[in-house]
């Protein structure tokens, strides 16, 4: 069965554009399935690779990413 991008298409595109826009602080997004369906929805987005770890974001704590290459992978998403 095919993935459905049309149901939440405007929100998906807006989140994607925030990541690729050099003027936005958003540098990652997480997409997921909506319930038990083939519909893709926006799950979360943020400006730090550690925003997903803390309620409301807040960035990385000391020692979260000792290797700089880990952060560079996140910024590519």
TrEMBL record:
Give positions of region: Disordered. 44-77
GO cellular component term, pick one: actin filament
Pfam families linked = Cofilin_ADF
**Localization per record:** Cell junction; Cell membrane; Cell projection, Lamellipodium; Cell projection, Ruffle
* Example of a GO biological process term: neuron projection morphogenesis
User: Has UniProt tagged this entry with the keyword Membrane?
Assistant: yes
Q: Where is the ADF-H domain?
A: 2-77
Q: Matching PROSITE patterns, A to Z?
A: ADF_H
Q: Write out the GO MF terms.
A: actin filament binding
Tell me the keywords, alphabetical order: Cell junction, Cell membrane, Cell projection, Endosome, Membrane, Synapse
What is this protein's name?
A: ADF-H domain-containing protein
Q: What is the lineage of its organism?
A: Eukaryota, Metazoa, Chordata, Craniata, Vertebrata
């Amino acid at each position: 069965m095919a993935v459905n991008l049309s149901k939440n298409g405007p929100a998906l595109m807006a989140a994607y554009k925030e990541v690729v826009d050099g003027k936005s602080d958003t540098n990652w997004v997480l997409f997921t399935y909506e319930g038990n369906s083939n519909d893709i929805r926006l799950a979360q987005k943020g400006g730090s690779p550690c925003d997903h770890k803390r309620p409301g974001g807040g960035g990385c704590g000391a020692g979260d990413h000792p290797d700089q290459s880990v952060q560079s992978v996140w910024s590519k998403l």
